[in-house]
Write the structure tokens for this entry.
Amino acid sequence: MALTLSQLARQRRWVKNRRANGLCLRCNTKIDVNQHRLCEACLAKNRERKRRIRMKKAGMIDEKRVMRIEVIDEGGLKYMRRDCAVRISVHDSGRTLKLFIVGKL
Ligand SMILES: [Zn+2]
């Protein structure tokens, strides 16, 4: 969606105004004007979002997000554990998959 010139001008004024007042462009938290355009919390959220997108693009499993393990065979669900932190590891030249449960969430 393209913005009209007046919409663009309004958007620029809005950003300039926020920056002049030292406010985060996303959540209005007071920030150091000479720093970024976003507060630390919003920057952290951005970093986390970018990390997730990067992992998804690379086809990687995001271990930090996994919180439930299900082992299923022909007979159905054999093992299930929720609210756990896991580490995934591949051994024997890619022939063995190991799931380590490293703690509770
Ligand atoms: Zn913010």
